[in-house]
Write a structure and sequence with these properties.
four-stranded antiparallel beta sheet, mainly beta, five-stranded mixed beta sheet, 4 helices, Neuraminidase
């Protein structure tokens, strides 16, 4: 620094250019995720797909496509409710319940008639209003976005009703409770469904805010977009210290890896989206922390160079791995999808008190059959034991 200071005195303009250049190089070397991200991954791949004892069939119907489940775990830590459509993305919404942590499931439960009119994948979320009233809310998307509400833990529901004069796709991919008690819900649209009459323009990720525990919602605001990448299906993960939120984003043009964007002010402003490593590239990311602090994210594998492309997979790592652009600890194949088209993912992920993860998705388990709804149960300690025996480099195809 002494040499640079003397240089400024002697030849200020020239030296300022040098210093700026030097510092620019240093920033490029240290900025997380600034280097080109790999299209594949080199962390170990752990395969659980052949372990049938981990798989619980939630629902199956011959010749009927069942898809896109989401789940919510109630406060007793054993009741799980799931909703999913009879069809690819759209179709009558089915609801089932487990009272033993996902080991067994009820018959299909009664739901309002309006649920048969759903046009997009349903999502279910727990919210609590400022007075402490607990609700379950379920969204159904495209135009307009509609919502149903239950104030008795899913025993009865309101019909689906519009939340405003706007629409969107995969609503709500994430619902996050903010530091002030408000809720932020996230979804995307490509111009076709945001308003009553639309046309395909560009992919944008939106937020809406509720200040009354999910009963009413404000107007959508754009939070993330990209000039070339088609970003969608934001999966939100809060940092361990609670001070930051990340959203993991599907990339729908298939020209890039998945992306990530961060906020340090509870969603008011967001960082420029950047590519994730190949190890986290996929569709409809859903994350949850393990008891030891590691982060588990499940998704449909769409990594460009992957032996499990199109399968239902999990990524194991840390939040800091995402911040720093690292590959993480390892990848796990949870289900071998036999459809060949990627009919899997869009999952619910719950953590039970004993450390068991219950990942509920849709998948084709036998060639030629329609997708069914199935959950996979695993603990990280079991995967750790298998990982210790795995080669360092994952195979690619």
């Amino acid at each position: 620094m002494i040499i640079r200071a003397k240089c400024i005195i002697a030849a200020g303009f020239f030296c300022v250019l040098i210093v700026t250049s030097v510092f620019g190089v240093e920033k490029a070397k240290t900025e997380p995720g600034s280097q080109p991200q790999p299209r594949g991954y080199s962390i170990p791949l752990i395969d659980l797909a052949g372990q049938k004892h981990r798989q619980i069939i939630v629902d199956a119907e011959p010749s009927q496509y069942l898809g896109h489940p989401t789940t919510v775990l109630l406060e007793d830590n054993k009741t799980i409710i799931t909703v999913y459509p009879k069809g690819h993305g759209r179709g009558a919404i089915v609801m089932k319940k487990s009272t033993d942590g996902g080991l067994t499931w009820s018959d299909r439960l009664p739901v309002p008639e309006s649920w048969a009119t759903s046009k997009d994948v349903p999502t279910i979320h727990r919210v609590i209003d400022p007075k402490g009233v607990k609700r379950l809310i379920m969204f159904s998307g495209l135009y307009p976005i509609r919502m149903a509400v239950s104030e008795n833990d899913g025993k009865t529901w309101t019909p689906l009703k519009p939340i405003g004069d706007f629409g969107g796709v995969v609503v709500m991919a994430s619902v996050v409770r903010l530091a002030n008690g408000d809720y932020m819900a996230l979804f995307h649209d490509d111009g076709r469904f945001l308003r009553r009459i639309g046309k395909r323009t560009k992919f944008q990720v939106f937020k809406i805010i509720s200040r009354d525990g999910g009963l009413t919602w404000g107007q959508p605001q754009v939070i993330v977009e990209h000039p070339s990448a088609h970003l969608c299906e934001p999966g939100a993960v809060r940092s361990p210290d609670g001070r930051q939120l990340a959203i993991l984003l599907r990339e729908n043009s298939r020209k890039f890896n998945s992306f990530v964007s961060f906020t340090k002010d509870e969603g008011k402003t967001w960082s420029k989206p950047r590519e994730l490593p190949g190890a986290l590239t996929g569709d409809r990311h859903v994350g949850r922390y393990a008891p030891d602090g590691r982060l588990v994210v499940v998704f449909r594998d769409m990594t460009h160079e992957s032996a499990t492309k199109g399968d239902f997979v999990a990524w194991v790592g840390t939040y800091d791995d995402i911040v720093k652009g690292r590959q993480g600890q390892y990848r796990v194949r949870l289900l071998d999808n036999k459809s060949g088209r990627g009919d899997t993912g869009y999952a619910g992920l719950e953590l039970l008190p004993d450390g068991t993860f219950v990942a509920t998705t849709y998948c084709v388990l036998k060639t030629g059959e329609k997708p069914l709804v199935v959950s996979v149960r695993f603990k990280l300690r079991d995967i750790d034991a298998k990982a210790a025996l795995q080669p360092k480099k994952a195979p690619t195809k």
